[in-house]
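tool_call: predict_structure(chain=1)
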Amino acid sequence: MPLNTRVHTTLLQVRPDDIDLFGHVHSSRYMDYVFAARLEQMERCYGMPLQEFMQHNLGWYLSATEMRYLKPLKLGDSMKVQTAIVSMGTASVRVEFAILRDADDVLCCKGWAEYVMVDLKTGRPRPIPEWIINRYSLPDDSIS
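tool_result:
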């Protein structure tokens, strides 16, 4: 089955504690936004809440990321966090993301993150189970 590479969007709000001394969102918060969006999207778009992974003693470990900061977000801004799985390996997925200011769709940050499937008991990587691969794939009837 082909990988579902659809772009999913989550709307988030800048919080007061996200702001740095320069009056805009601190760079460390952008990864928090991507993580929050992925958690919400895993449940809403793929039917896989984090609790389900944990019940199977599975988790995702962030193994690599790249971010490009293009325009600042400020207090009061809301943002669209768009993500898509672009590739899947034996034990990993690569997710591309974009963070756009909601008011004018200005691209503020873009990048990618690679997550490795780990066994929560051992902390070691493990192959992605078939049931997860199936949920990350397109149903046969959606292929044109």
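agent: The longest strand covers residues 107-119. Proceeding to next step.
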